[in-house]
Structures are given as structure tokens and as C-alpha cells.
Amino acid sequence: MSEISAEQREREAALVERVVASFAGTPDPRTRELVEALTRHLHAFLRETRLTENEWKRAIDFLTAVGHITDDRRQEFILLSDVLGASMQTITINNEAYANATEATVFGPFFVEGSPHVGLGGDVAGGAPGEPLWVEGTVTDTDGTPVVGARIEVWEADADGLYDVQYGDDRVTGRGHLHTDDQGRYHFWAVTPTPYPIPDDGPVGELLRATARSPMRASHLHLMVEAEGCRTLVTHVFPSGDAHLDSDSVFGVRDSLIVDVDQQIPTTPTPDGRVVTGPWARIDVDLVLAPAP
Ligand code: BEZ
Ligand code: FE
Q1: Residue 83 CB–ligand 1 contact under 6 Å
Q2: Is the CB of 106 inside a 6 Å radius of any atom of ligand 1?
Q3: Ligand 1: centre distance to CA 47 (Å)
Q4: Are 127 and 189 in contact (CB under 8 A)?
Q5: What digits encode the pLDDT tens for the residues 232-272?
Q6: CATH class as words, domain 80-289
Q7: How far is the CA of 108 from the centre of ligand 1 (A)?
Q8: Atom in ligand 1 nearest the alpha carbon of residue 78
Q9: Is any ligand 1 atom within 6 A of the Cβ of residue 208?
Q10: How far does residue 14's CA lie from ligand 2's centre (Å)?
């Protein structure tokens, strides 16, 4: 690329300052800070890449397509934020590392309010196909004190990689909630998570293909834990050995959230006497909550 003359640089820099100055009267200081920073970073991107007018038009067409496919059931802007790592970065900033508190990760689009109460020892699978998975552990604060009565929400895709809401009927499977007992312990049945692709039939999928990226999410179980006086934890458990742990399409994997799955042969008795005909598995997941901010 040819050298940019001093005169050209000055013109470009002057434009940035004019746009920033246009926001000087913004009454809310935080809004002003955000729009000024956005202006500076956007112009820095345009100037650094020497963006062509055709490329800017393509970018606008892309965002227009993201808007057009978005409706009550599909939020392509969130998906875009996810694959750009913006969702995960916002979560990282807002769930600051605190002692040994369990790390947070992406919420994702498949949580549904009003999940069934399955209770301790219940089965969140609710008939979803998959290998039975026994999940047990504790919820404590960062001093190791058990958190009694913590509400644990669980949701997951089935063995076909689909959440109940993706079936287009009224089934409620792969989700439920329970509470920790008087020693902060919990246990429930689920199905062993398997990897699945994020929705990739829209503009975000096009972006992934154009950049030779995979739409696959590493297999995971979603957990949300809420308790009085504690920071709400939204996290996942990732079974170790999954082929997508290093290339999760939404950058949700944290090493500390990877757990070993203990595979069981069909004749091994289950912890609660449930009769399981095929193989089953178990995992231990101890969750540590930071204090509420
Ligand atoms: C999920 O974990 O369910 C998910 C997260 C981000 C985008 C799509 C799906
Ligand atoms: Fe998920």
C-alpha cells in the first residue's frame, strides 16, 4: 500500500475529532463515554484497514441480513456477538475472577424460564434421548461454607444435538431445576452431553464458512446457580476429551470447567438404584459462588 501523506492523515484525524466533538453535549456521561470510544475505535478500524467503499457496503449488507433473519425465536445479533467473542469478553469483564469461584461462561439462546422442578435426584432429561448421566456435587462459597437451598437450573441438548425448543413442538426435555440440600449438596440425572453446531443457516454461518471456522460447540451441560448473598453463576460443564474443546465456536470453554466423565458399564449399580439398561456415566461438579457484588 502506498504511503499515506501527512495531509491525508490530518484530514482523517480531523474528521474523527469532529465526530467525537458532535457528542460533546450528550447529557448522560456514560452514554457520552461509550459513543466517543465507539467513534474512535470504529474510525481506527476503518483507517487501519484502509477499508474500501465496496467493503463498507458489504459490511452494511451483512448487518442488514443479520437484522432480517432476527425475530422472536432467532437472535442473529447475539449469535454474531458470540462468534466474535464479544459475548464471552463481556462475561469475562463482568464476572471478575474472585478467589476460587467457579468461572462463568456464555448463557446461550436456549434457556427457557419456568423449567420443571425435578428436585434432588430427579431427571432433567425428561425423555430426551441420550446416555444417562449422574451429576453430583456441592455448592459452596469461596470459604468452603456449603450454600443451602441454592437454586440450580440445568439445560442441555439431547444426543441428537438439539434443545427441546428446536423441535418446533411443545415438548419440554433436557431442562429442569432443583435446590441444594442442608449440606449444600446436589445430585440429578441428565444425559451425557454431545457436541452440536450453533445455527449456521444464516449470515453468521456464512461468516464462519468464509473464515474456515467450524460452527461446532464443544459438548456441554448448562448450569445457572442462584443463592441469596451470592453472585449468580452462569456456567457450563465440558466433558474432557471432546474434539471441539480448542475450537468452540463461541469461545465458551475455560480449562477449569472441563471435567472427566466416569464411564460405567451397564451392570454397575447406579447411585440411587435406578435401573439403567445400557451404559451410563457420572461426573462430579463442585460449584463455588463468589459473594454478590
Ligand atoms: C449454547 O450453548 O447453547 C449456545 C451458545 C451460544 C450460541 C449458540 C448456542
Ligand atoms: Fe448449549
Answers
A1: no
A2: yes
A3: 33
A4: no
A5: 999 999 999 999 999 999 999 999 999 999 999 988 999 99
A6: mainly beta
A7: 4
A8: 7
A9: no
A10: 46
- Residues written for the chain: 293
* Calpha distance 42→45 (Å, rounded): 5
Give the pLDDT mean for 29-33: 98
For the question of whether the overall pTM of this predicted structure is more than 0.90, the answer is yes
CA 161 to centroid of ligand 2, rounded, Å: 9
Whether 217 lines ligand 1, by a CB cut-off of 6 Å, is: yes
State the ligand closest to the CA atom of 205: 1
Cβ atoms of residues 230 and 141 within 8 Å: yes
Judged against a pLDDT cut of 90, whether residue 74 lies above it is answered with no
